[in-house]
Fold:
Amino acid sequence: VQLQASGGGSVQPGGSLRLSCAGSGFTLGDYTIAWFRQAPGKEREGVSLISRRDGSTSYADSVKGRFTISRDNAKNTLYLQMNSLKPEDTAVYYCAAGPPWATLTRLNSFLYWGQGTQVTVSS
Structure:
């Protein structure tokens, strides 16, 4: 079982990036899947999630209206489209998979974690 995150990089404020998270050894659609991020000196926080229970999506207030989470079942890949990026979005972004009841506020409810990809927003 493996999650491989990619797509990070450096971008100016207002720019866009799309993160990808490829799953192997299991089917992402069988899990609640999510993106988290961790900025230097801060705790890891939930960014966005697709629920296994009903397919609904949820977002942290700080990214609502700017980020979009999606999944391609055929490619077994999770995405995070990030638009209107701000310096405060700078962090290492992680993808994770967990049981249907996993939530963004309960990091330890997620079973599998990707290795993280760095996003830096700076002028």
